[in-house]
Amino acid sequence: MKWRLLPMMELNGAMQMAIDEAILTARARHKVPNTIRFYTWKPSCVTIGYFQSAQQEVDLEKAKQAGVDVVRRYTGGGAVLHDNEVTYSIVLTESDVPSNIIDSYKKLCLPIVYALRLLGLKAEFAPINDILVSGRKISGNAQTRKQGVVLQHGTLLLKVDIAKMFSLLKVPNEKLRDKVIERASARVTSLEQELGRSVAVDEVIAALEKGFTAVLGISLERGKLTRFESELAKRLAREKYATKEWSFMR
Amino acid sequence: MELYEMKLINYKVEHGKLLRISVEFQGDRITQIRITGDFFVHPEESLFEIERLLIGKRVNEIKPVLRYFVRTKGVQLVGFSVEDLVEALNLAMVDKETQA
Amino acid sequence: MDEELPKGLLYNDNHSWVKVNGDVVEVGITKPFANSVKEFVYIELPEQGKEIKKGETYVSMESVKWSGHLESPVSGEIVEVNNALFDEPSLLNQDPYKHWIMRVKLLDKDELNGLMDADQALANLSCKLG
User: Fold this and answer.
1) Which one of A6, B70, B77, C88 counts the least CB within 10 Å of its CB?
2) 3-state per-residue secondary structure call for B21-37
3) Could you say which of 2.40.440.10, 2.40.50.100, 1.10.1330.10, 3.40.50.40 is the CATH number of the domain covering C10-120?
């Protein structure tokens, strides 16, 4: 079966998370094939993991002032600032991945590693769910499984502004903020930093596409969201992801 | 009559994730608990079941209960272990005692 | 990623190795797997005397990065378990090929044909992209 590749979309965070969930639901009901898509965030958005508490992790006042959205994800993991990055999401049936979470992360992250190598970088997969270049994190990934379907989405940093990121996140001790930023800068990198030039979204998406087809051994057919998915995504964005009830659930 | 005491503890798992636990004790029994952090639990609902399981239990009796649950339900925890959770709760208890 | 697997062992697709000693085999976990989940803090060993089927859970484990279980590569009677691992789970990180988890008396030797040798297992595991 051919997989579906959706067009690149630049949208707000609530909508992006809603679309990912809508695709998962559509797949669970066999309405659509396995699907891959790439997207960017506008405006910038902090997403927190499903098990995090927004209040504990994010400086909500600063985020509001900066015009940065705050959205809880459907997937676990940590708080991420989506600023200058390309995000991918992949939705496939659970039978297509190993049941062991560790193994499934590896299977679905290797396409990203391939793509980075195509771009000329010495990338490697670091268990459980990170991708590193020269030992520094360039991509974080998160997965959930619902109704026999797996959704994994992850980031690929084009450019990173650590200071901006930490201005929006809470740090355990304000006095240590500089130290925290310093340590984080040493552990994180971006495509721009590694390639020494600015990188266009299109270039990254082209490499990612090749990565998924080559590593997963699939063929991609260009398609678009079905009516079912668009309607569901709009409802999910409005009634779930954009609501305080969902984002401040914990 | 022992007071209800709310404790907040941040427990960093070495090479793992951060566990933030908000727990209320009555004596050494857990009366309320909420576990947040940047970890993963598969399936996700298992975490809420774990929180419910812990209510009314003594900290020194939860380890086998949690292990049994994780094993029989085939739960996968990413970023922390049952051991870490129990250790964090023990720390919260100790904290409580030194304050009394 | 430079990974190696010892040549004399057989492997399944679930991070476990098998060492054949006639009718009785030893079963343990591979080093690449131990390295990826980091330090083990708890092992729930299988029960001595019990029957195990290939594909069934034989061990539940907790490490700092992951808690879960592994599937048995063989079927038979568990004749011995390595109790030392209960007291010191990190032995598995130190030398996973020395510290076997269980010894199994095979039900059917032909079952071993379904396992991989080191080269096949390495290819299966490989991070190297063509």
Assistant:
1) C88
2) EEEEEECCEEEEEEEEE
3) 2.40.50.100
